[in-house]
Write a structure and sequence with these properties.
Layout: H1 2-10, E1 31-32, E2 41-45, E3 48-53, E4 59-63, H2 69-82, E5 92-93, H3 94-103, H4 119-124, E6 127-131, H5 134-138, H6 151-155, H7 167-180, H8 185-198, E7 206-210, E8 213-218, E9 221-227, E10 230-234, E11 238-248, E12 251-252, H9 255-276, E13 284-293, E14 296-305, H10 306-314, E15 322-328, H11 344-369
Parallel strand pairs: 6-15, 11-13
Antiparallel strand pairs: 1-5, 2-3, 3-4, 7-10, 8-9, 10-11, 11-12, 13-14, 14-15
Helix pairs in contact: 1-2, 2-3, 7-8
Length: about 375
Amino acid sequence: MYANFQNEGRSGRGSNRTSGDTEPMVNDSNSISSVSTLEQEHTLSEHTDFTLRSQTHSSLKVDTHRRNTSKAVVRIFNDHFRQDCASSITAITFKTLFNYLISLMDFIRTAKSGSDWSKNELLTYHISVSPVPAEDFFAPVVEPSLQHLDPNILNSPVGAEDANLSDAVIAYLGYLDLAVKATQESSIDDFAVRILDLLGFNERGTVVATQYAIPLTICADSDQIARTDVCLLHRPTMVLLVLIKDKTLSNRTDAESQVIAEAIAAFQFNNHKRGERGLVGLTAMTIPCITMSGTRPTFYLVPVTQELSTAVIGGVYPATETIVLKCVTVAAHTRRVSEGMEDTEYRKLALKRLLRFRTLAKIHWNLFLEGVVK
């Protein structure tokens, strides 16, 4: 590709210059001297729009749908290369600009289902994740008591089958045992459902569903979906909370990026359902989310706005950054990062966090159920 830059720079319009044309200031080491501001929009095709601002190398807008990106970058470079830029260029080498343009290809947006989202999608849709201490994340909800739960749920070892234990406790410990030793993804899904039921997430009018596919419109493609592992639905079908697993012993995924995609899909879906009932769509919803890494929950509050949703639908870079709040559940005494609810002390902490999140999540989903934007 490096050769293509050089060859294109010597052909086309460049080969037809007259003696009166201004030559770009390029020395033998292929360096370009002088640039404090380099900003020009190029329309590459009906679906490609690059805006470069080299003052900060951080502002980028790309609107493209499955184009030949390498040729696009070559064309951009040569357009800039041929300009008479003597008055605006300062000390950026040919190689620096070349590498910068190549890096832009990482920002090409294509229609992806929620399960295919990665950190690249978060970057290209101006989304960042901010870890927050538990006391700040859960405020103003106070830490709950576990006294209403059977003490055997809190203290019994994984897989216990003592005859004195209730059927509910035996069932819970059995699901926990399968999740801790998970070799199949469904084991963690089943345990998550059991936990949500146990802690009362499925109140009257709500239902816990598994493998629920939420429609997602992205890059003008309305045929994509964001498939939740577990979600909480409010009848007649509004998505209140989404949960996906991070990994089993044999599989790793980017659960954080995917749960954010599901939150965006939930925003689109909920507003669509409001429209079906003759209600105006909301401009913002905070979607509560959980990821499960084995039996270790991590909590998220994803503030989805109309601006972000529209950017995803159109495949463009939104001006406003979306900051997702995140709270990881880590016990001070934990000896291994992978240790989860098989440890009884961690189990108590995780259950308290889940109960606390239920109250916090309900505050947020009640707002969009009532049509309130905060």
